[in-house]
Design a protein that fits this description.
Strand content: under 5%
Order of helices and strands: HHHHHHHHHHHHHHHHEEHHHHHHHHH
Helix content: over 70%
Length: 587
């Protein structure tokens, strides 16, 4: 079969998602079963994948979906416990003391606190933490989900203490003779040093592009959820937004270059939180309180902004608890996530030892593994129980929180039970009777054949498509890192930069990943509106992939053509276009 036709067939499941979920706005509970049937039909009918392998991939997907539902359940229990105890009321008052401006609040919570949670836990946990927190503080549920998804870009490459690099790229490249020769030629005798070298390149690209993500968050919020539907109102805090971006990305980049892939997101966001909150309290670059921005009154919101969960605080005459006491459960979450993810401590190993393993399901070679004590959902439940004790919540309140959370998590199961198995079948189509490469590689090969020496422009897009389907930057890097390296060598450019572009694009792909959107939407009762959310976040993914591709092409072509090359010209043209649009928006 022609590689172009095979690539087009591999693209078909993504096209089904784009058509039914995004364009026609079907709920994921209807669109994803159709997508699963499409993938299964291609696997059995075109790739010749053995039925037992498809069945094993499906069961593995169902098990992974169950772990995601558990994480959603834990996150909602945490939020409902804080609402019942009155902690959310105290948190809201604390943010009003810093600034009543919702633009400032979303930057601090989503961008900085969300990046910290990403650095410690990864795998969609920031949305599980920040989305319900934002909704509980009075944000429209839809705005909270969009903000929680958009920030899952820059910090993702170093999420879960560097897992996308240390596991994803490592698994994709390790042992290949061409990669080892390239590393040795660059003076990297130790494999860990080579991974750090690649991580430094990833961080440099992210730091340049990701600094603008806080501004994207506020502009999307004011454009789609403001009473005036205005980008200009988001641009009104551009100085503070860029300051918050740099407060995270500068230490993030320095840590990546100096210490390696484990801590850039963790330390960068922690430094950013300290710097930005301190500056905000002192009024640095802040909008005046008279000019603060807020959403329109709740009763004027369109119906699709609000979820099925009522996260509003009830009026109470009880005394307001202190900020430290209110935030202690989130401090427990952050502390436990860091302590259990640091490889220098044995805690993570102890928790992982309680594992359910099926190393060769049905003889297919597909391994199933679940470590229930290591999942972020367990951390959320421990913190929720601690909150009930610390906040002296009566048993009736605990019961209400858990029962409401169970109903919400159950509602998420239908979409996830089809979404994640679809992904697993897509990833496990190698070794079929037709002899084709698995679907993701077939898709990327067709794109590579079309682009030739301009591959750096689309390398981030391929990484992003991998994450869009797989729901993980780590998995995208595992699938495509060696492929990207080989393409770089074939077209005669530095393959290390191509792998870095893969990692950056894979991180950006999380912004539009279907099952991450489903999980985030479930935490605030927005199931069925996943397509609308992806339509909002798609522009951020396109920005990230386009600018990363142009920047990568400029860097790679520099060796032959100097700085006046096709990449820098394209990058300059894109910047001029953005500046023109900003000027039009502002007036």
């Amino acid at each position: 079969m022609s590689p172009y036709l095979l690539s087009a067939l591999a693209l078909l499941p993504i096209g089904v998602v784009a058509l039914f979920l995004v364009a026609l706005r079907w709920p994921a509970s209807r669109a994803m079963p159709l997508c699963y049937l499409t993938v299964t039909g291609l696997a059995l009918g075109v790739w010749g994948t053995p039925p037992i392998q498809v069945a094993a991939a499906t069961i593995n997907g169902i098990i992974i979906a169950a772990t995601m539902i558990f994480i959603v359940f834990g996150a909602i229990v945490m939020l409902n416990t804080l609402r019942e105890s009155g902690a959310l009321r105290a948190m809201r008052a604390g943010f009003i003391d810093v600034s009543p401006d919702r633009r400032v609040q979303v930057i601090i919570i989503a961008w900085l606190f969300g990046s910290f949670i990403e650095g410690s836990a990864g795998f969609g946990t920031p949305a599980a933490v920040c989305v319900p927190l934002l909704a509980g503080l009075g944000f429209p549920a839809m705005a909270a989900v969009v903000a929680g998804m958009v920030i899952q870009s820059t910090p993702v490459s170093f999420g879960a203490v560097g897992t996308p690099i240390l596991v994803g790229i490592n698994s994709g490249l390790a042992g290949d003779p061409a990669v080892l020769a390239y590393a040795a030629a660059g003076g990297h005798a130790e494999w860990g040093d080579f991974l750090g070298f690649l991580g430094g390149r990833v961080a440099l690209i992210h730091a340049i592009i990701g600094t603008f993500i806080p501004l994207f968050v506020v502009c999307l919020m004011t454009r789609f959820f403001g009473k005036n539907r205005s980008f200009a109102e988001g641009l009104g805090v551009w100085k503070f937004a860029l300051f918050a971006g740099l407060a995270m990305t500068i230490p993030y980049c320095l840590v990546a270059l100096a210490l390696g892939p484990e801590f850039p997101s963790l330390i960068g966001s922690a430094v950013g939180l300290l710097v930005v909150i301190t500056a905000a309290k002192r009024g640095f670059l802040m909008p005046s309180r008279e000019a603060h921005w807020d959403f329109a009154p709740r009763d004027s919101w369109p119906q699709d902004w609000s979820g099925r969960l009522d996260l509003r605080e009830e009026e109470s005459d009880a005394p307001m608890m202190g900020q430290f006491r209110a935030w202690t459960p989130y401090l427990i979450v952050a502390g436990l996530l860091v302590l259990t993810r640091l490889k220098t401590l044995p805690i993570g190993g102890w928790l992982k030892s309680a594992s359910l393993e099926l190393p060769n399901l049905f003889g297919s070679g597909i391994a199933v593994s679940v470590q229930p004590l290591y999942l972020p959902g367990t951390v959320f439940l421990v913190a929720a129980l601690a909150a009930a004790v610390l906040h002296r919540l009566p048993l009736a309140g605990v019961r209400r929180a858990w029962m409401a959370s169970a109903r919400t998590a159950a509602a998420a199961s239908v979409a996830l039970i089809f979404t994640v198995p679809m992904v697993q079948v897509f990833l496990n189509t190698a070794g079929g009777a037709a002899g084709y490469e698995k679907m993701p590689i077939a898709l990327a090969s067709g794109i590579a054949a079309l682009t030739g020496t301009n591959w750096p422009l689309v390398a981030p897009l391929v990484g992003g498509l991998g994450a869009f389907v797989a729901g993980s930057n780590t998995v995208s890097n595992m699938m495509f890192s060696l492929f990207q390296f080989d393409v770089g060598q074939r077209i005669g450019v530095d393959p290390g930069w191509i792998v870095a572009l893969q990692a950056v694009g894979g991180a950006a792909g999380n912004v539009i990943c279907v099952h991450n959107v489903v999980a985030a939407a479930a935490t605030v009762g927005l199931l069925g509106r996943e397509g609308i959310i992806i339509r909002r976040t798609l522009v951020v993914f396109l920005y990230y992939a386009a600018f990363a591709g142009a920047l990568g092409l400029a860097i790679i072509r520099y060796a032959e053509d100097g700085w006046m090359n096709a990449g820098t010209i394209l990058l300059a043209a894109m910047l001029v276009g953005v500046a023109f649009l900003v000027r039009r928006v502002r007036g």
